[in-house]
Design goal:
With 172 residues, this protein is α+β, with helices and mostly antiparallel strands. It is 34% helix and 16% strand.
Length: 172
């Protein structure tokens, strides 16, 4: 049982009552719960190191979970100065992962080695900086083998320009 709150006297009183009614053992401060690391701060600020570790693990995991790649890319842009809002998004990604076990990439023998590729770009899709994002995916035999999503280095002035920017150069 986890007992938490901001009134230490009340917590102690509750723990004494519960220990009288039930056989209990005090294990000290909570460090992990359901695979999530618990951090404390007197100021209520986000632990930057914890945020960076969690996002780093999510980046690694996104190699086999393309469904979280976009969201992880978004939160990784705030590694230098995360806010509570960003940590809330990371926790939402973790809740999503917990509710969707086994949803990684599955490779199966489809009886062919056909190669298919798809690409796309949005126009000023980022609400934060109005830059476009281009993306592509490649399938071999119906199995996803490569994918990428990359924010364009400059702001596109048209939807056509958003689709043809390559390697920091613009084609007009």
């Amino acid at each position: 049982m986890i007992v938490t709150g901001n009134d230490q006297d009340e917590i102690f009183s509750l723990q004494q009552y519960l220990a009288f009614e039930f056989e209990m053992k005090q294990l000290g401060n909570l460090k992990y719960f359901l695979g999530i690391e618990v951090a404390r701060s007197k100021h209520g600020n986000i632990d930057k190191g914890r945020y960076q570790r969690l996002v780093g693990k999510l980046i690694y995991l996104s190699h086999t979970r393309p469904d979280i790649t976009y969201a992880v890319n978004d939160v990784s842009q705030f590694m230098h100065d995360p806010r509570k809002f960003h940590m809330d998004i990371v926790e939402r990604i973790l809740r999503y992962l917990k509710s969707t076990p086994g949803k990684g990439i599955l490779f199966s023998n489809n009886g062919n080695l056909n190669v298919e590729g798809y690409n796309d770009a949005d126009w000023a899709g980022s609400k934060d900086d109005r830059r476009s994002t281009s993306r592509y995916s490649t399938f071999v035999g119906g199995n996803l083998v490569t994918w990428r999503s990359k924010k364009q280095p400059i702001v596109a002035r048209s939807s056509a320009e958003a689709g043809i920017q390559r390697h920091g150069t613009r084609c007009m």
